[in-house]
Predict the structure of Transcription factor MYB2.
Amino acid sequence: MCHRIWRQHKFESEIIMVGLMGWGSVPVQGWRKGPWTPEEDKLLSEYVSSHGEGRWSSVARCSGLNRSGKSCRLRWVNYLRPGLKRGHITTMEEGIIIELHALWGNKWSTIARYLPGRTDNEIKNYWRTHFKKNQKQQKPKAQQPLEPKLQQQQQQQQEDHEIKLENGKMGEAQGKQEAISMEDQCLPVMYQEIDDHQARQQVASMYPTILEDLCLPVTYQDHLQGEDQGLWGGLWNLDDTIDHTISGGGNSSQNYYNGGYIF
DNA sequence: AAAAGATGCAACCGCCGAGTG
DNA sequence: CCACTCGGCGGTTGCATCTTT
């Protein structure tokens, strides 16, 4: 903690001249770089609180921060946004990461959607530090791309997605908007899009253990039913109270604690 | 105790796609 | 159609801290 503050001050007076880089239409702008100071954090938080997220280039110009819009967005998303979890990734979250990475690969932002409170950056870092090493040790399996069957499914899913988009049946924009507002309220975001439902089915078919082990609904009907029964409200409240291992395929569902429900 | 290596993580970079004029 | 800006994403880097030797 202390070292972070020290590092921040280390860069305090450092102004790096940046030409036409990144965002912003300012021809030559001396954006500050390096670690954020508490004052900058405060400025950014206050600005976003009163003006909302988005329009990051305006944030950069109007908030009084001498930071690029890109930098402001990153800081907000990865550090200042309300509802972010700090602390270690739990074993359950780890299990989800493993399963979803097997399905989607390095789609960190997509994976992060299933772990509210965690950022793509955090998951990415976690994966790199915890699993990259293992991948090297277990080259044949880990470095392989997706299994042919899975790849085929994924391709099919992508095609379906595109067709739906073309037909205007998905209402994706609306879905995303809903998802965003739900995230803002730190509520479960499992079923924000039809894609997610399909993905869930894929996870269920390819990796049958995780949904069972995590006691997640496999089908949309399951989800709706669960919603009616108020079962999923705390689903993603994966507290550190969980101290059960998911390793070895996580073959026992009775060990898991899900947001207040002990299974 | 000191050096070396591993780990954690914030932040930057470059690229891409959507939107707009 | 083209050029440009913006927002977002994945990859990478840099550095402090922790752990091992």
Remarks:
- The longest helix of chain A spans residues 148-167.
- Confidence is low (pLDDT under 50) at residues 1-28, 138-196, 210-263 of chain A.
- The two ends of chain A are 37 Å apart (CA to CA).
